[in-house]
Structures are given as structure tokens and as C-alpha cells.
Design brief:
The complex is a heterodimer of chains A (45) and B (206). Chain A is mainly α and 45 residues long. Chain A is built from one helix and one strand, in the order βα. Chain A has one helix spanning 27-42, and one strand at residues 12-13. Chain B has 206 residues and is of the alpha/beta class. Helices cover 43% and strands 12% of the residues of chain B. The longest helix of chain B is centred in the last third of the chain and has 21 residues, at 161-181. The radius of gyration of chain B is 17 Å and the shape is globular. The two termini of chain B are 15 Å apart. Classes of the chains: A mainly alpha (45), B alpha/beta (206). Chains A and B meet through strand 1 and helix 1 of A and strand 2, strand 6, helix 5 and helix 6 of B.
Chain lengths: 45, 206
């Protein structure tokens, strides 16, 4: 019986963790600002 | 999900305006490596003595980044600023005398030049000191590479140093526009707002 191929170690992308404390802006407000700016960054000039 | 003890990195860095860009680079590299930056700046509680806040954050953090680059003479007082070496001493003391998980602490010591510390803090001779030369790009690379070494064998994939430097550069370029949208001043961002924006940016661009 053929030997099973050795399993490759699982590699996964690091997880981005939340900041320890929230500041004066909420995560939702920050996320919306990031999305709006990212949209402008990727749109053609 | 916020960080645990094993994900938390205590930042022992100067808070002055001239250092801001280096602090921002270090915070970015910590979060882009999958860790959580912790600082005495995150707590705004006048009822708690500052040193108590520092003890609590060090006890909650497995890792520490200690930047001694601002240990220099105050031009008026002719005395050195010694908060950073003091907090490094607290970190090393807790690692040495603490129990259980505190023994697993790891730290990165930064300075402008690798051997400058020998003139003011020679007791730490033998520790590996890294130089950022006052450059945010070098600081990103040094922090990223150090955290990479701490996670060897974990199977976790990080952006490479050049990629992370580029991600930081584009984040800094986009930051003023993000600040305008949330009605904050770019040059007066507090630590918690800066980290919130960093985290959301990285989650959108993992």
C-alpha cells in the first residue's frame, strides 16, 4: 500500500486584531472613512 | 477581537511631536504583523497614577518595544529624559521576578545607533539593540522582522518588510483624508483614534 504523502504545515494569513481601546471615533465611523478613501485611491484619475 | 497577553505589545516610546511619525510607524508595523499595540496613552484616567497604568499594561503584554532614542539632555535642564530606560527596567524586572507567563516576555530595544546606549545604560550590554536611525521606514522593517522571529513555527503569514513599508506609506498618504471624514485633526490624533484607523485600514486591505 502506498504511503500517504506527508501533510504540509498549515499556513494562514495573520489575523488583524482590534485595538485595545476605542478612541473618540467608533470602529464603524473609522471603517466607513477607510472605505471612502480607499474607493478614491483605486478610482482612475 | 482584541488582543490577548500573547498578542499584546507594550510600546515604551517617547510621546513628543518630533517622535510622532516613528511612533506611528511602530504602531502600524505591530498591527500589520497581527499584534496589538498597547501604550500608557490608551488610558485617560486621572484617578490612576501613571506608573500604575504602565504596570498594568506591561503585565498584560508578552512583548515590549522600548525605544531609547530620546534619552538625551534637555537643553534647558541639562538632564536626560529617563522615562524610557525606567520602563525598560520595569519590563525586565517583571520578566525576571514574575511567575508563569511573565517569564515568557520578549523585548525589542531600539535606539538611533546600535551602541549609543553603552554611554548611558551599560547594564543592558549584551542585549541585542536595533537601530532605526530615526527613519520610520527602517522602524517598520525592524519591528516587522522582530515580530516575525517571535512567531516562527506558528504558520502565520506576514507581509514582507518592503510590502509593509509600502502599506505604511500609502496609509500615511491617505490618513489626512480619513481624518477629514471623521472630523479629526491629522496632527492631533490621539493614540486610540490612530490605532482604530490603522486597524480598520488593515482589515479592509489585509
Amino acid at each position: 500500500m502506498p504511503k500517504a504523502a506527508p501533510k504540509r504545515p498549515v499556513r494562514k494569513k495573520r489575523e488583524i486584531k482590534d485595538s485595545a481601546k476605542q478612541g473618540t471615533i467608533t470602529r464603524k465611523e473609522a471603517r466607513e472613512a477607510v472605505r471612502r478613501v480607499s474607493k478614491n485611491e483605486s478610482s482612475p484619475r | 477581537m482584541p488582543g490577548t497577553y500573547d498578542d499584546s505589545v507594550f510600546l515604551n516610546c517617547p510621546f513628543d511631536g518630533a517622535y510622532r511619525v516613528l511612533m506611528e510607524a511602530v504602531v502600524f508595523a505591530v498591527h500589520d504583523s497581527g499584534f496589538v499595540a498597547r501604550s500608557a496613552l490608551e488610558l485617560d484616567d486621572a484617578s490612576q497614577p501613571r506608573i500604575q497604568k504602565i504596570y498594568e499594561i506591561i503585565l498584560a503584554s508578552r512583548f515590549g518595544i522600548h525605544d531609547l532614542s530620546r534619552t538625551e539632555l534637555d537643553p534647558d535642564l541639562k538632564l536626560p529624559r529617563f522615562n524610557m530606560p525606567l520602563e525598560l527596567g520595569i519590563f525586565l524586572g517583571i520578566k525576571r521576578a514574575g511567575r508563569g507567563r511573565q517569564k515568557a516576555k520578549r523585548c525589542l530595544i531600539l535606539d538611533v545607533e546600535r551602541y549609543r546606549y553603552q554611554a548611558f545604560c551599560s547594564d543592558i550590554a549584551g542585549q541585542d539593540i536595533h537601530a532605526h536611525e530615526g527613519s520610520p521606514e527602517i522602524a517598520v522593517k525592524v519591528v516587522r522582522n522582530w515580530l516575525r522571529n517571535q512567531t516562527q513555527g506558528s504558520g502565520s503569514i506576514f507581509p514582507g518588510a518592503v510590502s509593509m513599508q509600502e502599506r505604511f506609506r500609502t496609509f500615511v498618504e491617505a490618513l489626512p483624508a480619513m481624518c477629514r471624514l471623521v472630523h479629526l485633526e491629522r496632527d492631533d490624533l490621539i493614540f486610540n483614534d490612530y490605532t482604530t484607523l490603522v486597524v480598520q485600514r488593515l482589515k479592509e486591505n489585509p
